[in-house]
Amino acid sequence: MFDWDSVRDARGDSGAVVERLLDRLSRRPDAALWDELNRRLVVEDECFFSVGFAALPALSRLAQSGDTEQRDRALDLAAVITRTLHRNHEDDRLVRADPQALRVLHGLAQIRVATCVGPTLARLLQDTLAFAGYTFWASISMDFTDEHYHLDCPHCATRLAVVIGDYGHYSAIRDHNDGDVHRVPLRPAAPADLTGTARWMHDTAVSGGDTTLAGGLTHLFGQAECGACGSTFNLADWFEAENSPTQPIDPVVPRTDRSN
């Protein structure tokens, strides 16, 4: 059993304060209590407090409330906490202690994103990925009106800038004076060829009517070419490999079948 008094929240108070807030929310939904809980667990859209990871089981129970606002508040906060697992491994044990909590959150997030249309679709899609255990894809930006990623060529180690947006879809070498040079167009994947996580992300974007997100994902999961050595590589696979630490938690949806 977790010792709430052994940790501190963002304000430096005992974790017992968070425990009491969660208990009060379980008895009566209250927007002010949710705001207070967020302030105690999240700083600049991240949670690096053990008390936050310990709160995931309680948040999964709150998310099962019949109250839609209570559900959404619980899912939103739990997603912020879970996405932080990509960079914080000190509290993996707290998440592994109750894997059922993530399964519940993932199932509820799936239901929510399936009915979403509009500007929140990308965030809700990434919330679902976080609960599934794929915290890297849940944490990167996906503003495909003007997205820039940076990675090293897997063959010659040249630093590349990858652009996906209204300004183009290409890999390049970014020069301080001349901007993007040696531009090479990205080769988008055919939607029918996408599988697993990529297929689910694309299909969700299409169902939600977000053509910009859907189109950007085909480029992200397509092929890139290095302007320095001319080699080609799978952009998403290398981007994930270069930036992902050891998977912090066992995926809710196995890597062999991440399409749901």
Quick summary of this structure?
The chain has helices at residues 16-27, 31-41, 50-54, 56-63, 68-83, 92-96, 99-114, 121-132, 135-139, 196-207, 211-220, 235-243, and strands at 146-152, 159-165, 168-175, 179-185, 223-225, 232-234. The chain has 260 residues and is α+β, with helices and mostly antiparallel strands.
Give structural notes.
The chain is built from 12 helices and 6 strands. Strands 1-2-3-4 form a 4-stranded antiparallel β-sheet, with helices on one face. Strands 5-6 form a two-stranded antiparallel sheet. Helix content is 47%, strand content 13%. Helix 1 (16-27) runs parallel beside helix 4 (56-63) and helix 10 (196-207) packs antiparallel against helix 11. The chain has 260 residues and is an alpha+beta fold. A hairpin with a 6-residue loop joins strand 1 and strand 2 (159-165). It has 2 domains: 4-139, no CATH class; 146-243, no CATH class.
